[in-house]
Structure prediction request, 271 residues.
Amino acid sequence: MAKAREPFACLAVYDATMARLMDEAGVHVLLAGDSAAEVVLGLPRTIHMPIDFAMCITAAVRRGASHAHVMADMPFMSYQASPDEAMANAGRFMTEGQADSVKLEADESLAPLIDRMTRAGIPVCAHVGSRPQTAALTSGYTAAGRSEPEAERIVRDARALESAGAVLLLIEAVPSEVTLRVVEATSVPVIGIGAGTGCHGQILVVHDLLGLSTHPPRFALPAAQLAEPIVQAGREWVARVARSELGGKGYTMRPAKSVEAAPEQSRMGNR
Ligand code: KIV
Prediction:
């Protein structure tokens, strides 16, 4: 699609049900994002994402997706502390999580690690521009590449990471001119988030798309407003319980001799 300049759609999702629905909608890439730390676990920042939880949601997204490319987002300190640990963790995302690729936030200093992962057969997406895992240095999430030296550094990072073997780039929260420079300077597909329309693919957090976030980023235009219907459904449940009118169907007892163990049913499939 990138070669044909057909924009492809990506979303950060965190569970099998949402993966199934967005896969059905034709979303091309599903990222099991570290933003789950905030939107699923209610933690303050993405750096608080526990690695085992990241592993579980990657596997869940994989199970929900039939067609989409599944990308695992490597959490803070799962690849920064040592190259050996980074390799082992990336390997777990590919085997336990059954991801198609791993994403890590990187500048050019991580080129040797990306080279090593690539040699081991792990497809890497290098996340450049604004890097939320470094937000402690900037006292919060900020845009990147707004000055000429910063823009040049991002283009340099992107080039170095592609040369090291990155098969995809993701660029976050930069002016659209910087995105265009990165697209011009590299030859792999570039996914953007808050980076203008000049990239090959676009990604958002699914909660922002569905209108579930209380403070969505400025670039995230919701395609639905699901918060209110969800609250409404909750209120309806509270009211039904209060009235003892549950709806649905109950169970009746069978004559003793025909009672057999009920077959296991999956909530995902045959209900
Ligand atoms: O975890 C995340 O949501 C991300 C974004 C860039 C989509 O990494």
The mean pLDDT is 95. Strands lie at 8-12, 29-32, 69-73, 101-105, 124-129, 168-172, 190-193, 201-205.
